[in-house]
Each structure stands twice: as structure tokens, then as C-alpha cells.
Amino acid sequence: MRRTIARAGVVVAALAVLGAAWAHGPTRQKVRESIEIDAPQAKVWAVISNFQDMSWLAGVTKTEGEKGNEIGATRRLTLGPGATVDEELYKYEPEMMSYSYRITAVDVKVLPVTNYSSTLTVSPAPDGKSKLEWNGAFYRGFPNNDPPPELSDEAAVKAVSGLYKAGPEALKKKIESGT
């Protein structure tokens, strides 16, 4: 009888912990998009490899930064009047044609995310083409329970997915047209 009561107590305690975890707030969201570009890897990497130049990304009107491609390099993307995103490079692997960065400051009205990190990688694709993969992980723009719709998980995923589709599409057009 005592064992049964003790086991029941353990089960109740475990369920209470799980319930608290489920009600804890936002969960980390992930987005991964890729595109095939009709160009060799080296050509695609040449366009995206400079952390200080994000001119290939649709909507970016200006990029300013410091420290080139060194770990800890920073950049500020200007997206329009008053809209900026500050980012920091934390991994740079030119031999793998890949780099990773995190957002250090953004207005959630511009991009409804917090604690955002991202990786861009160029890899080979069939017939001499390249595959650009962009993946990121982040939390929604509202850190507590019951977010307003514009700062929800769905809004964050939609915004990042849109960026990860539109940016590479513009890059593909630029590279394949030779402009």
C-alpha cells in the first residue's frame, strides 16, 4: 500500500513538472529553406561570403560593419527608414562555404523574433549547380504566454520563412542573370 501511494506521489509530481514545462512559454522555432542555383559553388560563395555585404538580400538598402569576416564581426542592416537589424558573426568556415551569425538587436515590429541565430551554407548540387541552404532558430517576439498575434510563434515563423525564401530567390536571379 505504501509503495502504491509513493508511486502515485511520484507520478503526480512528474505530471506537475511536465504541466509546468508545457505552460512555461515560447518554444524555440526552426526554419530551413534551400534553393538550387545554376552556378558553381565558388560563384555563389563569392556573392554571400562577405559578412559585411548583404546587398544580395532583398529589402536591405545598406550594410555597415566592422571586422570583416572575423569571429565577433558586426554588421548593421538598414531595411528602410529607421528599420535596422544588428548582427554578429560567431562562426565562419570558408572551407565549408558556411557561416553563422546571431541578431543582437532588432525591433520586433521589423522582425518578430528574439534570440535568433542563423547559418548560410553553399553546397554542391547535380550538374554543376549549387544549393544555398539558410536555416535559423529563434523564439517569437513576445517572451511570455498569450502573445499578441503579430508576435506569436506563427508570426515569427511566417516572417523568417518569407525572408528565407525571398532572399535566396533574389540571389538566384542576380547570379543566374549575371548582374
What is the secondary structure topology, with strand pairs?
Elements: H1 2-22, E1 29-37, H2 41-48, E2 62-66, E3 74-80, E4 83-93, E5 98-106, E6 113-124, E7 130-140, H3 153-177
Antiparallel strand pairs: 1-7, 2-3, 3-4, 4-5, 5-6, 6-7
Helix content: 25-40%
Helix count equals 3
Strand content: 35-45%
The residue ranges in which pLDDT falls below 50 over 5 or more consecutive positions are 10-22
Q: What is the 3D form?
A: globular
Helix vs. strand class: alpha+beta
Q: Gyration radius, to the nearest Å? A: 21 Å
* Strand elements, count: 7
Strand arrangement within the widest β-sheet reads 1-7-6-5-4-3-2
Main sheet specs:
7 strands, antiparallel
Residue-averaged pLDDT, rounded? 89
Terminal residue distance: 79 Å
Q: Secondary-structure element order, as H and E?
A: HEHEEEEEEH
Overall description:
With 179 residues, the chain is α+β, with helices and mostly antiparallel strands. It contains 3 helices and 7 strands; from the N terminus they run H-E-H-E-E-E-E-E-E-H. The protein has helices spanning 2-22, 41-48, 153-177; strands at residues 29-37, 62-66, 74-80, 83-93, 98-106, 113-124, 130-140. A 7-stranded antiparallel beta sheet has the order 1-7-6-5-4-3-2. A hairpin with a 7-residue loop joins strand 2 and strand 3. The N and C termini lie far apart (79 Å).
